[in-house]
């Protein structure tokens, strides 16, 4: 599972500053997608080969009024689902009553806590951090988030507290893993039942009320699949639980495990801001994506046009994604999903040889030269594959740090076209000698 680090603390202690500092390198990877609104709450930290999910819980205060119920619920869920909590306090303010209240709450939670004393820049960090021993949360780490000072100590703590566990899922060979994701009531359970066929419905009802995603292996025409059902095995009668049980973190963990994500939208409601946010996170995860416009049945032509326009406007950063109107309830469009999933899987997992990639690079350069920087032309020499799911192309050259976003985007689209990739994002990584 994608390990989760929850960042908690009073307002203004520096949580978002640290969040931005830690997630910056990831941001660079997706910066070239126009129209993408960055989610300032869920971000990724790369530690060696693996990613961790960092969740900024926002300011915890006594007055919870004005905070919408959904956001508040997600904070609770983040704490419940966290593997490690970073509890941040402000060195300049010293210890205060709200810190103590949060510390109490965290002790009850019983998760590993790292006490982070921020803003130690320009002050004697040892003296200040000592004050915070009384919170009884272990040794405080003094940092300055604005400068990144001592942040590496924090990262080392992540490695200590989040031991690498073997991934059973990968070992069992899931075949093609499909995550069914979307907000509550968009039709995820209905689609899962529809994809599996009616005989499987029974299995669902036995399930009870676990909050985790459910992994359902099955075979179709000799191909192995695993459905990752984020709606969980929910009982039909307990509809009131739906909203409570929706967890962005669980959705992200399911997305991480998937080869292909089917993100469902309730076409009657159109695309909400929450949809756009979660879809931004799907892009960050680099997964092949089908946007299922569900409940297409019974919509009039005008409304259908409206939804299509909305997609163009709000989801311009997902140009690569496949969009499919479906009705999970009636089954229209659903049968075709398997073929689409297959195509996307092949794209996400494609093998690309070094000569092929280098030839595409040469053609791209010939068609449109990189710009001059300081009178010198940026050089790109060769390319090779750096990963799958999503496909990663590593490009070697000189001065690649100075490549403008527009040129990177040009290359990205050129590679995608030439490689005939469908439904998956592609990542370009630029390397040049120091
Ligand atoms: P949040 O409400 O906890 O997310 O806090 P912010 O990240 O918005 O930071 C609140 C204020 O503290 C901002 O004005 C930051 O510039 C400042 N700040 C954050 N980290 C540091 C730091 O390491 N040193 C100093 N001196 N100021 C900081
Ligand atoms: P989930 O919370 O995302 O798992 O959503 P459900 O599968 O429980 O569906 C929520 C509601 O939407 C139920 O009443 C479904 O019958 C209804 N629903 C699901 N798919 C469709 C569809 O394609 N068309 C229509 N009209 N209703 C649907």
Task: Give a structural overview.
With 434 residues, the chain is an alpha/beta fold. Helices cover 38% and strands 22% of the residues. The chain is built from 15 helices and 17 strands. The strands form four sheets. A six-stranded mixed sheet has the order 2-3-1-4-5-6, with helices on both faces. The protein has a six-stranded mixed sheet with strand order 8-9-7-10-11-12, sandwiched between helices. A three-stranded mixed sheet has the order 15-16-17. The longest helix is centred in the first third of the chain and has 16 residues, at 15-30. The protein starts with a strand and ends with a strand. The site of one guanosine-5'-diphosphate has 15 residues, from helix 1.
Quickly describe the structure.
This protein has helices at 15-30, 69-81, 97-109, 125-131, 151-161, 168-171, 188-196, 201-205, 241-245, 248-257, 273-285, 301-314, 335-348, 354-367, 405-419; strands at residues 4-8, 42-47, 50-56, 84-90, 113-118, 141-142, 176-181, 214-220, 223-229, 260-266, 288-294, 322-325, 372-373, 376-377, 379-387, 392-398, 427-431. It contains 15 helices and 17 strands.
Mean pLDDT metric:
86
Q: What is the number of beta strands?
A: 17
> Total number of helical segments?
15
Instruction: Supply the helix-strand structural class.
Output: alpha/beta
Residues in helix, %? 25-40%
Radius of gyration: 23 Å
Q: What small ligands are held by the chains?
A: guanosine-5'-diphosphate
3D shape: globular
Distance between the termini: 35 Å
Poorly predicted sequence stretches spanning 5 or more consecutive residues: 199-210, 233-243
Largest sheet geometry: 6 strands, mixed
Strand order of the largest sheet: 2-3-1-4-5-6
Beta fraction: 15-25%
